[in-house]
Structure formats: C-alpha cells, structure tokens
Amino acid sequence: MAFQFKAAIDDLFKPPTRLQSMVDRAVRPEIREPDIPLNLDICDLVNKKKGNYPHDAVFALLPYINGRSNGQAYLALALLDYLVKNCGHPVHYQVASREFLNDLFRRFPEFQPTLMNPVHHRILEMLQEWRLSLCRRSRYKGDLQRINDMYSLLRRKGWRFPDADSENIAVVIGPENTL
User: Fold this and answer.
1) Nearest residue to 79 (alpha-carbon basis) of 16, 131, 46, 35
2) How much is the pTM?
3) How far apart are CA 170 and CA 158, in angstroms?
C-alpha cells in the first residue's frame, strides 16, 4: 500500500512529457482556432515514436474534451481529428478502445436533449465519420468494432447523428482506401 501511494505521489510531481506539453499547448484556452502546424507536429511525433505515443496522445485529450470549456473541447476534438486522419491504425485502435469510447461519451446525457451542445454534436459527427470510413474500409475492421457498438447504443437511446461530410470521410479513407 505504501509503495502504491509513493508511486502515485511520484507521478504527480513528474514533469510533463514532451507529448503532453505539446498537447497542452495545442488546447490552451487563449487560442480560438486549431494551431495546424502544432497539431501536425504532434502527429509527426506520434508517427515517429510509436510505442505508447498513440495511446498517450489520444488519452491526453480526454480531460480537455470532457472539461467545462467548450473552446478547449473544440481544440482537443480538432487535434483528435488530425491524429485519426494522420496517424493510422495505432490511433484508430486507441479511439476504438472501450476505455476511450466510454470516457468520450461520459458527459453525454442518457437521452438526446432538444438543444444539442456543439461539443456533443462534433463528437457524434466524428463517430459517424469513423463508422463510415474506418469501420467499413480499414483492413483492421475487426479491431474497430466498438465504434459500431457505441453507434448502435446511442441510436437505441434515441441520439440522432448528423450526416457525415463526404470530404472528411474521403480524407480518413485516403486516396486509395489504404487504412
């Protein structure tokens, strides 16, 4: 017990990793629009380092997506979109994990309200894009089944999904459907 407590305290005082620092800069509250060069640098870092970087990058965004600031949530969702579109299967696998999807939809009410929160709308839009692109055309479809499961669960609860933008789906799929 004492060892676990010490490890938890040590984790609290660890300096942030380079990836975490970059994510923090990409979603800082004073910016209004996504910092495209920084987002692409984060994608490059994730692609270059591999290992736990896809997991760390995707899960570092959840506190911002589920936070109180819609501005930061929007920036975090924009970065997540860049990661999904630029980092391939390692990131796709992370966004399709039960842990990630459950945390992503944690702030959603049980049933769709009359007036939808713009962050919820964007999350539904992204889930729809992933379902129509990754889950249908990826060579690793089996790894991404939980995206379809989450979609089905939300549909059963009465959530309506926005139409997916065909241009965004084409970007996720790529020029020759090589996911």
Assistant:
1) 35
2) 0.85
3) 28
